[in-house]
């Protein structure tokens, strides 16, 4: 079910537009700079403004009561509050409108605190003049505002988690613990991902296998979790609340049917890949003595505890150079570009601590081995992680810092005394060039995004410039994607350690659980809407829409003739407005953010006299939102 | 002779990025000219070329589009916006409108210095163009 449901009585059709304007003092935060009485007085001259007042705290109960009383007693049917940022109190005032029986979207919040009084302290007159124009623009917007209704979408209380590493398993366990059904899809034949390969993890020193085993037990024993190993997602249709996910066994015979799962949300936890150095990068691929950190960790794990000296591939190792930032923090022009032409300019974050942890293991087991640590910087950012840096230093590791633009080089040695020589410039000794004979070079390779192009293509998932999956906002909405109902967990989003990946997974699980807590979800109504009277079926909007299924064309019968009209699926539209920009008759707009509204706002900003702005006649009582989905419509 | 405070600069901000960025500037009590009018939009990709040209015709002196850049959460929106602004520049040249009056930039939630610099630069550009 997808529908827009009225949440309040509609404004009677034909009623004149009567706007109430309320200018907040914010206890002096605004009124110390802006003459709030003058602003209210000027706005009273606007032909659509019926009430214009100023008040000490509009967000207070008495402040909200002013609005409610005016709606009831003075037949106010649009409201503008000029106050702090809408991020703080837009919802407060919408709810006040709702309590008064008015559609909560017939409201405009104008920011005259963070974006006026606080930033123009030295110019009271200028700030007041600006406030008048901003509030007038708000009035012009709200008089063109239609009633809007949240989009209600029925939900499947089930989540598909893609990826069975620690992040995916953590998310699955957390979701199941909240009573949701989970299908955990893993491409490999076993759960665990990259962590299963780790001997010990820092700082707890637990074994990676134990960590994985614990989580595996949790998900495999939970009655709400279905694990599908050796499988991948090949179809992802539908929308938040009602996704249809097609899962295919990777080794399936042609006749094996795909498994279809209906889910309210999808959590992507596909993890990362290790960076593979280019041929010749620090000697990699040219000498067997140059290896990656994961390869070395694997060799160390397999090295018997009874072994007296360190050896790699049968050759004794008496000195090792660890080189940081291989495949990370690359510089354009210094490092060779990746296949897409870009360099990996991001920091992989985990490799400094991982390298130092490995150095400590070498030092503990083979104290006679000389260890050289060649770095740009040491970024042991985790809580308590700096301790391992100090421990490695005290145990004799020699730290050398090379310039960003001059990475160390390796040359194989011709004599049998060592495998080769690492040459580096050391900033810590005033740029001295050093030649270090070594038996082994370990490259601290970073994280790169896993190749999940086929999954990305299924829903045009946003990808950042670093090629990792991109959240809506790193601070405000850190696990949500631009496509509603698709959430991120772990290193598919960017380099992170086990702790961070599991925290992100728990966050994604909570987010999904909130989404699916009720039988229906209410989505914001700020999606594209089509005015069928204006749509001429030119289809220009279709080419602009990146979201499959959000915008389609459908036949309609008008005056006995069949015509083509654009139709929006409100549950799949993200409300970006790309379609609106190319529609010559302005038949398609984002509800609540129409181009007519913005034009009128500009008119108000440039107007010298608020009273000279034109009177806007009454508007239809309700917007005709075209929903083509089964059971939809209002 | 115009003063910078007499100018009318329209600043188009995105709800997820530059609008909170403008709030951050306010929370830090950093000061700029009151001739600046911030409007928030889901994404500036929604504006057709005519919107910019009409705004100039109505009396807006300068427009700064503070986009979310490559961090834009809407797939394909930023490249589309960037191309559209390119087309607006071409039309501005045809119409004899100084192209420095329109700027597409990227501002994040904490880009305080960049936010102020864009306003300063726009004011200087407009005043220079008016003086010429």
* Biggest contact: A-B, 57 and 48 residues
Architecture (CATH level 2) name of the largest domain in chain A: 3-Layer(aba) Sandwich
CA-CA gap between termini of chain B? 11 Å
**What global shape of chain B is seen?**
globular
What portion of residues of chain A belong to β-strands? 15-25%
Portion in helices of chain A: 25-40%
In total, how many domains does the architecture of chain A comprise? 3
Q: Overview of this structure, please?
A:
The complex is a heterodimer of chains A (634) and B (132). Chain A is α/β, with parallel strands linked by helices and 634 residues long. Chain A has 3 domains: 1-150 and 593-634, Rossmann fold, CATH 3.40.50; 158-271 and 450-517, FAD/NAD(P)-binding domain (3-Layer(bba) Sandwich); 276-447, 3-Layer(bba) Sandwich (FAD/NAD(P)-binding domain). Chain A contains 14 helices and 31 strands. In chain A, the strands form 10 sheets. A 5-stranded parallel β-sheet of chain A has the order 9-8-7-13-26. A 5-stranded parallel β-sheet of chain A has the order 15-24-18-19-20. Chain A has a 4-stranded parallel β-sheet with strand order 3-2-4-5, with helices on both faces. In chain A, strand 10 (231-239) and strand 11 (242-249) form a beta hairpin. The two termini of chain A are 12 Å apart. Mean pLDDT of chain A is 92; it is low at 4-10 and 621-634. Chain B is α/β, with parallel strands linked by helices and 132 residues long. Chain B has one domain: Rossmann fold. Chain B has 4 helices and 4 strands; from the N terminus they run E-H-E-H-E-H-E-H. Chain B has helices spanning 18-27, 49-58, 77-95, 112-131; strands at 9-14, 36-41, 62-67, 102-106. A 4-stranded parallel β-sheet of chain B has the order 2-1-3-4, sandwiched between helices. In chain B, strand 1 (9-14), helix 1 and strand 2 form a beta-alpha-beta unit. In chain B, helix 1 crosses helix 4 (112-131) and helix 2 (49-58) crosses helix 3 (77-95). The interface between A and B is large, with 57 and 48 residues.
């Amino acid at each position: 079910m997808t529908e827009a449901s009225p949440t309040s009585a509609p404004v009677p059709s034909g009623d004149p537009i009567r706007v109430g304007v309320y200018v907040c003092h914010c206890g002096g935060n605004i009124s110390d700079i802006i003459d709030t009485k003058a602003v209210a007085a000027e706005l009273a001259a606007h032909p659509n403004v019926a009430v214009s007042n100023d008040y000490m705290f509009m967000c207070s109960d008495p402040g909200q009561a002013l609005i409610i009383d005016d709606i009831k007693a003075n037949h106010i049917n649009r409201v503008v509050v000029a106050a702090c940022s809408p991020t703080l109190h837009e919802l407060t005032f919408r709810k006040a409108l709702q309590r008064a029986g008015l559609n909560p979207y017939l409201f405009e919040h104008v920011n005259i605190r963070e974006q006026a009084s606080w930033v123009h302290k030295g110019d009271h007159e200028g700030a007041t003049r600006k406030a008048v124009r901003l509030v007038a623009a708000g009035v012009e917007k709200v008089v063109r505002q239609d009633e809007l209704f949240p989009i209600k979408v029925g939900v499947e209380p089930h989540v598909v988690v893609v990826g069975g590493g620690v992040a995916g398993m953590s998310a699955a366990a957390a979701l199941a613990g909240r009573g949701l059904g989970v299908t955990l899809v893993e491409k490999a034949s076993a759960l665990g991902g990259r962590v299963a390969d780790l001997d010990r993890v820092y700082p707890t020193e637990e074994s990676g296998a134990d960590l994985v085993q614990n989580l595996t037990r949790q998900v495999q024993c939970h009655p709400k979790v279905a694990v599908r190993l050796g499988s991948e997602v090949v179809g992802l249709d539908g929308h938040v609340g009602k996704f249809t996910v097609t899962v295919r066994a990777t080794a399936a015979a042609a006749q094996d049917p795909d498994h279809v799962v209906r889910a309210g949300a999808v959590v992507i936890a596909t993890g990362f890949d290790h960076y593979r150095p280019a041929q010749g990068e620090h000697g990699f691929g040219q000498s067997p003595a140059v290896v990656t950190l994961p390869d070395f960790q694997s060799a160390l794990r397999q090295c018997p505890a009874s072994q007296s000296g360190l050896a790699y591939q049968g050759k004794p190792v008496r000195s090792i150079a660890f080189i940081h930032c291989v495949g990370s923090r690359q510089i354009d022009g210094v490092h060779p570009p990746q296949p897409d032409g870009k360099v990996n300019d991001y920091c992989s974050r985990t490799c400094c601590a991982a390298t130092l942890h490995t150095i400590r293991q070498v030092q503990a087991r083979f104290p006679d081995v000389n260890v050289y640590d060649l770095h740009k910087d040491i970024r042991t950012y985790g809580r308590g992680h700096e301790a391992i840096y100090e421990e490695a230093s005290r145990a004799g590791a020699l730290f050398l810092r090379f310039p960003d633009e001059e990475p160390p080089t390796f040359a194989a040695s011709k004599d049998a005394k060592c495998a080769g020589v690492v040459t580096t410039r050391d900033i810590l000794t005033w740029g001295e060039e050093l030649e270090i004979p070594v038996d082994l070079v370990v490259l601290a390779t970073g994280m790169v995004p896993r190749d999940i192009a086929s999954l990305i293509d299924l829903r045009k998932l946003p990808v950042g410039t670093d090629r990792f999956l991109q959240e809506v906002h790193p601070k405000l909405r850190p696990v949500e994607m631009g496509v509603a109902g698709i959430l991120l967990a772990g290193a598919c989003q960017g380099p992170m350690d086990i702790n961070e990946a599991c925290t992100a997974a728990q966050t994604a699980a909570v987010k999904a659980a909130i989404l699916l807590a009720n039988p229906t979800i209410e989505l914001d109504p700020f999606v594209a809407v089509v005015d069928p009277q204006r749509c001429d079926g030119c289809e220009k909007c279709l080419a602009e829409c990146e979201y499959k299924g959000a915008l389609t064309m459908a036949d309609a019968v008008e005056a006995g003739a069949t015509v083509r009209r654009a139709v929006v699926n409100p549950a799949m539209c993200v409300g970006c407005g790309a379609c609106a920009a190319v529609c010559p008759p302005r038949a398609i707009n984002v509800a609540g953010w129409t181009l007519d509204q913005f034009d009128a706002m500009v008119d108000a900003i440039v107007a010298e006299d608020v009273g000279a702005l034109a009177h806007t006649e009454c508007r239809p009582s309700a917007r005709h939102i075209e929903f083509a989905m089964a059971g939809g419509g209002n | 002779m115009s003063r910078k405070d007499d100018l009318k600069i329209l600043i188009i901000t995105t709800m997820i990025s530059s609008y909170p960025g403008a709030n951050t500037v306010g929370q830090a009590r950093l000061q700029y000219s009151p001739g600046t009018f911030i409007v928030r939009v889901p994404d500036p990709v929604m504006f057709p070329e005519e919107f910019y040209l009409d705004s100039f015709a109505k009396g807006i002196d300068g427009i700064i589009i503070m986009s979310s850049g490559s961090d834009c959460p809407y797939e394909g929106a930023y490249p589309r916006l960037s191309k559209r602004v390119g087309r607006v520049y071409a039309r501005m040249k045809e119409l004899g409108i100084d192209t420095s009056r329109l700027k597409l930039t990227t501002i994040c939630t904490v880009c305080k210095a960049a936010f102020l610099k864009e306003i300063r630069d726009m004011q200087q550009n407009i005043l220079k163009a008016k003086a010429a």
